[in-house]
Amino acid sequence: QVQLVESGGGLVQAGGSLRLSCATSGIRFGIKTSAWYRQAPGKQREWVAALTSDGNTNYADSVKGRFTISRDNAKNTVYLQMNSLKPEDTAVYYCNVITGVSYWGQGTQVTVSS
Fold it and tell me: What is the model's pLDDT at position 38?
């Protein structure tokens, strides 16, 4: 059974940093893309960052230069390093992995206070 478990969320002041982790298990086939999404209250879920199997990264304009997505294959874990956080980054952050099938984690809350 495939599981994605996010952790690392919390409350941080504006300008601070957090590192989110997404531990994956039960994935039998190669991961094509790992990504992070977020959903703020009253808003639709939006894409934040993606990392392809060949190492290419892409970021939403709103986080470019502040967030970094990475993956540790030995630990089957995807990370999102978030620096210079802003109140508008407040959201539930979701990990997404695509093998041919799309899998989602349960989400982790990030709250940035002003």
Answer: 98
